[in-house]
Each structure stands twice: as structure tokens, then as C-alpha cells.
Give the backbone structure.
Amino acid sequence: MRTFDIKQLNESLRSDIRAKIDNLNKPKGSLGRLESLAEQICMIEQTLSPELRHPCHLLFGGDHGVEREGVSVSPRDVTWQQMLNFTNGGGGVNMFCRQHGFDLKIIDMGVDYDLKDNPLIINRKINRGTKNFLYESAMTADEYCRAIDTGAALVEMCADEGCNVICFGEMGIANTSPSSIWMSLFGGIPLDECIGVGAGLDSAGLIHKRDVLRRSVERFQKTNSCPCPADVIREFGGFEMVGAIGGMLRAAELGMIVMVDGFIMSACALAAIQLNKNVRQYMVFGHCGDESGHRRMLDLMNAEPLLHLGLRLGEGTGALCAYPLLESAVRMVNEMNNFDNAKITKYF
């Protein structure tokens, strides 16, 4: 299986970055979260003068076999219908990409529908959805590797276009189910505490979802007493999710800023960290959503999100909403005057 050579950030520049931020003509720490965000961006880029270039958003689509168990209030047809809606510019993700100047790329990783004739969808279909993990592994080892490699290759394509800040989103009915399982198994949290209502299950639906996921984990653990992270990922994940994991890892390997969205993409970030812990340093977490357990999942990664707007749409929309804060942080570092040049007495 593919491995990624992700470098730990070089700490030798950090003191100079902090000195530059602290000597901007403002009280020390007065721009709060923007200051720590600016420091992170400078560290990722290893420069005192950072820039954001050709931001790209990769939106991966895929269906899940476990959807057949009624764990989502929405049917799988919504996946392909929304994928087509995105090509017409009608989704929330389209609006925010237009607003913030992101190059949106829509990728079919495993939608259970024939989308290959649509020129606005990048066809990387591995299969027409994963298998039902209540009864068997969601994907084979070969399919897992293909999904990782596909996500990595798409990030390389963006990098070749000049991108150095990349955002990930997803479309896949029932993908809160594997996310909850990953959260439980990787975070050591009781499964029931990781499972939410998704797109709107009622109380009976939530009880049923918990039962299906519990039996799925029990089936897996009967024959896997000490699984490696990759085993857990391929056992329950969707093709769109594993594609995003490969993309996150390759982006960090290339020294890019990785923007992380809500519950699903945070689960992918958590999984990516299990494969290579150094990827965490390159991640900026856009928001804390309203899906049950998201705040707790962020705590597992020691992640402080930039926004909390009650969002739970997915598609990468929360991370896109946070992008202007990255722009503000970069402008702060590059455009604010310092005390010496402004001839202002330091007042901190």
C-alpha cells in the first residue's frame, strides 16, 4: 500500500514568524485567532511572506452499500441527482466556490449511476458504490489503493495548475455511518456516542442506525482482533472518503494547506492522521458543525475550528466559508505596518 513522505514542519523559522506578527502595529495578540492562523500558514509555506494561490476544491461523490439498511433518511438516488446539480451550478458548494474564487472539480469516485457522459464530472469511478459493510468489507484492498491513488493524483493535478491551498468535500448518502465508526474505533469512544441523525433521522431511525452500525463493528471485530488503520478505513469507508484521505495526504506531502470541512471530512482527516500523523500540521479546520459528535471528533485531533455556524450540509461548504479568514490572516502578515516603520511606540 502507498505511503506518503510528509515532512514535519521545520521549527527553525517559528520564532521569526512570531516576532513579525508580534511587531505589527497592534497590541500583541489583539487579532486573536488570525494570528495563530497566520503563523500556521507561514510555517506550512516556510516563509515570512505567505500567499494563497489558485485555491481548488475537490468534491468527491460515492455511494455506500450500507444505505440499503435504511441508515439514512435520504435514498441513494440523491447522490447522483446532486452530482448533476453541481454541474449546473446549483449547489451550495457552487455558490461558495464562485464567491471565494475556488476552482471546483467534481469527481465520480463511486456513484451508483452512469455519469461518464457528463463532461463536467471527472470520471474516476472505482465501482458503483461500496459493498454493504453490515455483511462484508466495504471495499477490497485493491479498491482501497485505487481510491487513495486517485485522490493523490487529483491533488497533483491541482498543484500543477499552481494551487497551494486545497479544500475537500463529499457527496454520498449514508456517509455519516462510516464516519461514526471511524470516530469510535480511532478515538476509543463508545459507538453510540458517535452516531447522530445525519440528514434528519427520527428517534426510531436513530435507534435502527445504531443497531446496524453496532452489528457491523461486531462482525468486523470477530475476525480482526488487531486491525491496522488501513484495514479499518477500507472495511467501512466510501470511495469518496478514501479519495479525500489520499488527497489530504498527498497535499501535505506537497506542502499545501489542507482545508477540512465538517463531520465527514473531519472523519477523513482523523483517518489520514492514523496513516501519517504529520499530516495534521498542514490542516486548517473550517468549522464545527451540528452533527452529533463533531466537536468531540475535533477534540481528538486537538483542532480548533474557525467557525461555528450550525452548518451540516457537507460538500465542503463550511471550509469554503472559512476561506476569507485565511485571506485575512495572510493580508495581516503581508500588509500591516510594524511599529518601527510606522514610528509608533510599542504599547504592549
About this structure: The chain has a mean pLDDT of 95. The chain has 13 helices and six strands. Residues 203-223 form the longest helix (21 residues).
